[in-house]
Amino acid sequence: MANELLSYAGWTFLPGLVSGWIQTVYYGITIRAGDPKPQPGSPRYLKHRRIIQSTVILAYLLYTIYEADYWIRQNADFYQILGLPLDADEKRIKSRFRRLAALYHPDKLLDTSDPALLSAAESHFVLLKDAQDTLTDPSRRFAYERYGPDILNWQHCITIRDYLAAGTLQVQAPLYGGALTFLGLLSFTSYLQAGRFWRYLFSMALLVLECHTISRPYTAPLLTKVVNPVLGKVTRHPPLLPFQLLVLARKATFTVFIAISQLSGLFPTSTPPPVAGAAVRSPEEMQQLQRLEQLAQATDAEAGRLLQMDMSPFVGDAEGTKELRGKVREWLVTNTIRADPEVRDAMGKVLGRRRAGAPAGARG
After folding, report:
1. With contact defined as beta carbons under 8 Å apart, do 280 and 255 qualify?
2. How far, in Å, CA of 118 to CA of 105, rounded?
């Protein structure tokens, strides 16, 4: 539980904090001294922030899964403790235990005066004994491979049916009951609505994987045909047991939930609410606006075509094109000046003074 809380706390502030640092360093490297940097809130700044923070979120997602796998490898399973393959039979398990017991039995210690050393030796021997007792009992071996070392504390479990019933009550019911309750509460609130479909989809996929992995009398094909062969060929990772696969799947699902919530804030897909006081247009008005927009686009295209036809005599004539541009520029400037109200008012005053100073005959 403590690891889950630390992981959630990291998801809360790390992506935004690291993204801000990376964006600052990125601008310091890519933008030359003296050039303006994109201001917070500008389209360019927001675009860079989305790309950087998405990368950070995906990288942190992979890290959290690696962290869970590292914890699994640090807590070796019974097969690794005894140094046996996953398909070892009962005879081989007992033979291996006798050999290790001869080496690690506390009575074999040369120095028994150190309490810490003696306690460590006794703990290791008890672990070897638990591993041997579990793997030589078919029911306990079945339960261990699917639920892990927690089954050592389950009381009144003898048969496979007993272990499945205990696992359902102690593992699946609290886990998925709490998850579905949490998702149901989110559905009735306005919090974390983005990605709701994907959360339900991943939850159902995890439930199907867990039910298939636990209830089958054989190891899940996902492990025997995909995961473990790939790990054996590509890495030096030891083969996974079913309960270890489920631990990784639960961790991945939990972190994917948080990653979806983080990404949905960067790429909002919902339509923004209407502005207060803004007119709400009917479907008929929207169709009319669309037709008007299409008419405007067609008119613009036709005007461009007519302009191109008018300019066709000057194609290839650089001198004529230059002269035409000069005439058009002069015409635009002249008409702009003449149309200006202040210019027209000033010209009227000048003409009025000229008429006032002209001889009487000239005025008439």
Report:
1. no
2. 10
Q: 206-224 burial, b if ≥16 CB within 10 A, otherwise e?
A: bbebbeebbeeeebbebbe
Q: What is the rounded distance in angstroms from the CA atom of residue 240 to the CA atom of residue 230?
A: 11
Q: What is the DSSP track for 278-300?
A: PPPPPHHHHHHHHHHHHHHHHHH
Residues in Cβ contact with 200 at an 8 Å cutoff, skipping those fewer than 6 apart: 183
Query: What are the boundaries of each domain within the chain?
Result: 2-58, 82-266, 322-351
Average pLDDT score over residue span 333-352: 70
Residues 285 and 209 sit within 8 Å (Cβ to Cβ): no
What Rg do the C-alpha atoms of the chain give, in angstroms?
Answer: 39
Tell me the per-residue pLDDT of 119-172, one tens digit each, with 9 for 90 and over. Answer: 888 888 899 999 999 999 999 999 999 999 999 999 889 999 999 999 988 888
Instruction: Return d(Cα 115, Cα 156) in angstroms, integer.
Output: 35
What's this model's pTM, rounded to 2 decimal places?
Answer: 0.65
Is-contact 101 133, C-beta < 8 A?
no
Q: Which residues have C-beta within 8 Å of that of residue 41, sequence separation ≥ 6? A: none
